[in-house]
Amino acid sequence: MPATVWIDGKWYDRSTAVVSVYDHGLLYGDGVFEGIRAYGGRVFRLEAHLDRLWASAKAIWLDIPMAKDAMARMVEDGLKKSGHTDSYIRLVVTRGTGDLGLDPRKCAKPTVFCIFDTIALWAPDRYEKGLTALTAATPIHHREALSPRVKSLNYLSHILAKVEGIAAGVDEVIMLDSGGYVAEASGMNLFAVANHTLHTPPPYAGILRGVTRDTVIELARDAGYGIDETPMNRYDLYTADEVFLTGTAAEVVGISKLDGRVIGSGVSGPVTRDLAARFRAYVTRSD
Ligand code: PXG
Hints:
The protein is α+β, with helices and mostly antiparallel strands.
């Protein structure tokens, strides 16, 4: 099914959906975005994604030129229009079309667009076997340079980390912050499991606060797992019973090997599989 795209109030298909080369989103990476999933025709946690989009925009001094409820309606309408029931929705707000020169005041109005498509990051066997990973030399942004809590259009560090992983022949990368603490994967949050407790870095330390992360924490708490949000380092990952990643696109996926060390039993572990099953049941529930 071809992608359906909404740009500033009009609908397009994939081949006709274009934005200006003078858009500061393209020229400077000046903008914010969300990656959202729909399951069975229902948008998953749309409110949480829109709240994060508005917070990201506020943090970069960007006024989104429409109301939150109008954007929610557009997303719901677009999903229906696209014909997808299970969908990946990419919502983007850029500084808008300006001229050359990075002064954001040159952009009269932010550009808003939304793509309704599908996404598959890993083949199904990766979810059973777990991913191989390495720690990238490229750190995430320093939180006082560009806060990792802003879901901005600046993904170059994450892409360069991903390139390190590709060059080394592993599936995914773990990124550290500039203090050497474990932060996140290239587009996923990170958890270590030890003694029936989930350990994950706290958002204030400078990571993106994932919607999937928060959902998994809720589900894990309800299932009786302990939750510990304190900074971690690589030692905590190497010695964990299990390590897994969460993200809108990836959902819940285990790590089998990190920096040459086998993690736990070397396949997707029981807690990872339990939480992946709880997550799937939760997102596809019919109530
Ligand atoms: N960290 C980073 C840096 C991310 O970009 C997450 C964590 C997980 O957050 P959510 O809210 O999705 O649980 C992300 C999310 C893509 C893609 O196209 C990337 C993300 C989400 C969806 C798709 O690669 N990043």
